[in-house]
Specification:
Elements: E1 22-27, H1 34-45, H2 49-62, E2 64-70, H3 72-83, E3 99-104
Antiparallel strand pairs: 1-2, 1-3
Helix pairs in contact: 1-2
């Protein structure tokens, strides 16, 4: 019971737990053309042609490029979209989408 003119104080402890970030990393291969990579990154991530081309150059030169850093669930969703984008019609030996992996940031 609280008496008139008195204040009741309650200590509330708020705890915030941060979601650990994950990288979605595109892996290089010889089956997909620069044009395909630029097109796919534009369609899946909404990247501009310039930004997508920079990722294409980075994956070609270094073997991998970090596309996004986000929650694990979001990274896995985008990974599936990269994998399911389909083969490169410009490349005769291409039979599927590119490979992307999810790693802790």
């Amino acid at each position: 019971m609280v008496r008139a003119g008195t204040e009741e104080q309650t200590d509330v402890i708020v705890s915030t737990r941060l979601i650990p970030p994950y990288h979605l990393i595109l892996i290089d291969d010889d089956a997909h053309t620069y044009s395909y990579v630029v097109e796919m990154l534009g369609a899946v991530f909404g990247f501009s042609k310039e930004r997508a081309y920079l990722h294409a150059c980075e994956v070609d030169a270094g073997g991998r490029t970090i596309l996004i850093t986000t929650s694990r669930e979001h990274a896995e969703l985008k990974q599936e979209q990269v994998h399911s984008y389909g083969p490169d019609p410009r490349s005769a030996g291409c039979v599927g989408g590119m490979t992307a992996i999810v790693e802790p940031a």
